Amino acid sequence: MVYGSGNYTYERVEGWGGGASGRDLGVVSSMAVDSQDRVHVIDREPNPAIVVYDRDGRFLYDWGQDLFKVPHSIWISEDDIIYITEVELHTVMTFTLEGKMLSMLGTPGRPGALGQPFNSPTWAVLGLDDDLYVTDGYGQHYAHRFTTDGELRCTWGGHGSEAGQFDTPHCVRVDRDGRVLIVDRGNARVQIFDAEGRYLDSWDHLLAANDLYIDRDDVVYLAEAPGRVSILNLDGEVLSQWGNRDDKDGVFVDAPHGIWVDAHGDVYVCEVPFAHNRIQKYRRV
């Protein structure tokens, strides 16, 4: 079966990550692909860990069993540094690909005051200037920007539905022009800002999304909670879509929560909050 339309069509890779060479997963909240095409998966519950597969779905190794309580998102930089947000510990942590901790922002177990980092941060990525952008979206409704030294440069947002406000800012990405795209899940939109947090634009024609990925061709991929994947250009125009809520293979029994596109154009999607072992790979055709 083919999913999507136009120039963006896909076939589901049957049994990816399963079988004798795989590893059973609990609830998968996020995944990211490194420069060697290895897929790093957050196995969030019941036993939190980072699980690593090759691109064919063969289990390689896992780590972090004693580090996390509720890891939420994973993002990997071009130089293969892993960034993980931890919603119960209220921290953003960085690691090597093998799981050696490099840094931590936030005080473990201590939420920040209103408007101050962090209170259950949801996503963390680097911008063009290597500054760190974090959505602080579960305990409050803000976005933060930090210098490479971990100094807070600016904060913006606050709870609401007006331009520049958020209702659960869930994910952040930075495009090649330095624009900051934030998934404003509770308001079912993507808001766009400059690097200083000044409002530029909004895409309001979407379902409530959880994750957003921008590929090297400036194509945007959205994992939308009601059970859909949408592919758009950077003007917000829809190029392709597929999905609904169903227990059939290839569509979504639960809410798509994470999405990543590898160097080959293949798409990975994971689902929360109840289904176990739900990570699907779609090969571009």
Q: How would you sum up this structure, described in words?
A:
By secondary structure, this protein is mostly beta strands. It has strands at residues 2-5, 8-12, 27-33, 39-45, 49-53, 59-63, 71-76, 82-86, 91-95, 101-105, 123-126, 132-136, 142-146, 152-157, 169-174, 180-184, 189-193, 199-203, 209-214, 220-224, 228-232, 238-242, 255-261, 267-272, 279-284. A hairpin with a 5-residue loop joins strand 21 and strand 22. The radius of gyration is 17 Å and the shape is globular. The model has no long low-confidence stretch (mean pLDDT 95).
Topology of this structure?
Layout: E1 2-5, E2 8-12, E3 27-33, E4 39-45, E5 49-53, E6 59-63, E7 71-76, E8 82-86, E9 91-95, E10 101-105, E11 123-126, E12 132-136, E13 142-146, E14 152-157, E15 169-174, E16 180-184, E17 189-193, E18 199-203, E19 209-214, E20 220-224, E21 228-232, E22 238-242, E23 255-261, E24 267-272, E25 279-284
Antiparallel strand pairs: 1-2, 2-25, 3-4, 4-5, 5-6, 7-8, 8-9, 9-10, 11-12, 12-13, 13-14, 15-16, 16-17, 17-18, 19-20, 20-21, 21-22, 23-24, 24-25
